[in-house]
Amino acid sequence: MSAFTGRKFRVVAWAITCAALGGILFWAYRKYVLLHPDPTLTWVREGVKYELLNPKMLGALLLAPWFVGVLAGSLADLPLPQRVLSVLLRIAFVALIALGLSRLARTATTEKVATIYLVDVSESVTDESLDDARAALDKAFAEKPEDGVIKVIT
C-alpha cells in the first residue's frame, strides 16, 4: 500500500489546501494593504467615498486558513454541512471584527460656511453695545447663504 493512499493522502491534501489558502490571502494582504502607497484604502461606490483608515487590521483575516484547517480535525459530532456552515460563520465573524478594527469610514466634502457669534450679555455691557451686537447679528442672518449655519453663544 502506497504512502499516498487513504487517510494520509487526505490529510496531506487538506494541509496543502489550507497552506495554499493562507498563501493566497497573504499575497493579497501584502499586495493590496502592506505595499499600498497610501496609508488608507479609498474607493467610491455609487458616488459615496469610503475609506479604511487603518487597513493593516485586515490582517486578522489571515486566520481563515486556521479555521478551515481545524475543520477536518473537529471533534464536534455534526454533519459535514453544519461543520462547513460553522466555519463560514466563524470566518464571517472574524471578517466583521477585522473590518471594524480597520475603521471603515464614509467621507464627504462640503462647502458649507459655519459662523459662531459670541455675545457678552453680562451686566457690565452697555445697552448700546447689545444693540450693536443685535444689529450685527440681524445683518449676518440676512446675508447668510442658504446652506450656511449661524450659531449664537450668549
Automatic annotation (TrEMBL):
| InterPro entries (alphabetical) | Ig-like_dom
Q: Residues in domain Ig-like?
A: 1-47
Highest taxon in the source lineage: Bacteria
Which UniProt key words apply to this protein?
Membrane, Transmembrane, Transmembrane helix
PROSITE patterns reported for this sequence: IG_LIKE
Q: Where is the signal peptide?
A: none
Membrane-spanning residues where?
12-29, 57-75, 87-105
- Name of the molecule in the record: Ig-like domain-containing protein
